Amino acid sequence: MTSDSQTANSSSPEQFVVQVFSEFSRETVQRRWHAINVIVRMSMLAGLELQLEPALNLVCDMASEIIPYERGLVFFWDEEQQQMHLRVTRNLEASDQETFARGNLLNLWTAKFQRPMIVPRGAHEQVDLLLDAVGAESVLILPLFVRTRVLGSMQLFGSSFSEEDAQLLWILSLVVENLLTRDFANEALIKFAFTDFLTGMKTRGYFETQLEREMKRAERSRGPLALVMIDIDHFKILNDTHGHHVGDVLLRDVSSVLMKDMRQIDTVARYGGEEFVLILPETNSVGAYRVAQRLRKAVESARFFAGSPSDVVKLTISMGIAVFPQDAQFKRDLIEAADAALYEAKRSGRNRVVLCSDLDRKTEVS
């Protein structure tokens, strides 16, 4: 093993931490007055009411005026999933974004040291792998604070960065803390508003917004997207027989079955009454049918209690599947296609899964 590789392997992250201060030196003020004006502008915008992602985009834009960088990643804490998520990228292809979506070592360092860090190529083996993936020679990492806690990191990639660059961005980070604190709280309120109180699932409003986002993402990546509509069979009879209180309990229990073992990228929402919807990104008709059959069998085999452990009821669900872009190219058309498949599943006997593409073939035959 060469001495260079030994150094890269043994480098302690503490050495990459930049010593920063709460004020600028006279030399920095004279030399970087334009960058300081950018920070002053940011302080004037800190009172804006923004959602979190637009706020992070604004910070990225301001950072680009302070220092030139080639590519950027911004991670921020997701309170619901209790982990860092990639929220903003700069100059990265959609396919590259999936590579970084789950975070990296730099997020851990940011949370630990709570100061800017500069890591050049050759200084740390794992960081070199990240630099290779991004195509850069150096990375500057900046912590993002919410109420003095590090809840995010901005990772800027380029040819090289100076300690003065880190000092300028450190002050920017302190300036935007109030903005991010307010917008992070707003995001939490929005998530609360988009959660169905009875089932714990996302609401129909959230589903409508998320479906639009996922369809745009699928269009960019030229990949499939499956929409599954679900209805509990004969639920009205259960409500009439056992009462609405028992019906609510059964809705919660069925919801738990539907949400179990779903991927993080999937969306499970209550569409209304006893109807549910699934958004399955990067999933074709074969994959969606497999998921739907798994869920159908799980509900069919589960034991549901209608008020007491001695009163066991058996439930089944019917499901309709439509896939973007083969079944529909627009949001409303995709929902209607999945709904038509669901209607056919119920019309033809319930407790089954029907693909929209099968409806088209039936129409051609008839």
Keywords:
366 residues, alpha+beta, Beta-Lactamase, Alpha-Beta Plaits, 5-stranded mixed sheet, 50% helix
Strand content: 15-25%
The end-to-end distance, rounded to whole angstroms, is 72 Å
Main pleated sheet: 5 strands, antiparallel
Please state the structural category. Answer: alpha+beta
Instruction: Output the CATH topology of the largest domain.
Output: Beta-Lactamase
The shape, in one word, is elongated
Name of the CATH architecture of the largest domain? 2-Layer Sandwich
The CATH homologous superfamily of the largest domain corresponds to GAF domain
Helicity, as a percent range: 40-55%
- Give the tally of structural domains: 2
Written as H for each helix and E for each strand, in order along the chain, the element string is HHHHEEHHEHEEHHHEHHEEHEEEHEH
Which residue ranges are poorly predicted, with pLDDT under 50 across at least 5 consecutive positions? Answer: 1-8
Tell me how many strands there are: 12
Mean pLDDT, nearest integer?
87
Structural summary, described in words:
- The strands form 3 sheets. A 5-stranded antiparallel beta sheet has the order 2-1-5-4-3, sandwiched between helices. It has a 5-stranded mixed beta sheet with strand order 7-8-6-11-12, sandwiched between helices.
- A hairpin with a 2-residue loop joins strand 4 and strand 5.
- The protein has 2 domains: 188 residues, GAF domain (Beta-Lactamase); 162 residues, Reverse transcriptase/Diguanylate cyclase domain (Alpha-Beta Plaits).
- The protein is an alpha+beta fold.
- The N terminus is likely disordered.
- The protein is built from 15 helices and 12 strands.
